[in-house]
Specification:
The protein is mostly helical. The protein has one domain. The protein contains 5 helices and no strands. Helix 1 packs parallel to helix 5, helix 2 packs antiparallel against helix 3 and helix 2 runs parallel beside helix 4. The radius of gyration is 16 Å and the shape is globular.
């Protein structure tokens, strides 16, 4: 049984995001502008998966609608500015933390919102750090 006062989902979600981000950076996955947009698309789709696992039906409609918002942010950010993707990841993290107040998450484990919210926020912060670092390096090359 999940202990609501447990910080484990937060810690594991945050640590996993940091490890995945570091791994992606070392390997070079994040050099492709599609990487974080794909991450946002996948995290946006997981509540749809949970709703299908719970039997689908009417619960699927709002999940697909919210997925569409995050998929649109990923696509728009991929095509225009990766800052939109970073904002989308942060927004999805916030969504994870508050969605229970207005929308049930059928099929999702009780610990999922904390895990996914922490993952999303840390991924957004990591992506923002990369974007700022790239901007700083570009400014240094231009000023040289």
């Amino acid at each position: 049984m999940y202990n609501v006062t447990s910080y484990t989902p937060f810690v594991v979600g945050a640590a996993l995001a940091a490890m995945v981000g570091l791994f992606a950076h070392v390997v070079g996955y994040d050099r492709d502008r599609a990487f974080y947009a794909a991450v946002l698309t996948v995290v946006g789709a997981l509540y749809v998966l949970f709703a299908v696992m719970a039997g689908g039906g009417r619960d699927l409609i709002p999940e697909v609608a919210f997925f569409s918002v995050f998929a649109a942010l990923a696509a728009i950010g991929f095509r225009t500015s990766l800052w939109i993707v970073a904002a989308g990841l942060a927004l999805h993290g916030g969504f994870d933390f508050v969605r229970h107040a207005f929308l049930a998450a059928p099929g999702a484990p009780a610990w999922w919102p904390a895990f996914c919210g922490a993952y999303d926020v840390v991924a957004a912060l990591g992506m923002a750090a990369l974007l700022l670092d790239r901007r700083s390096r570009a400014d240094q090359r231009i000023g040289s």
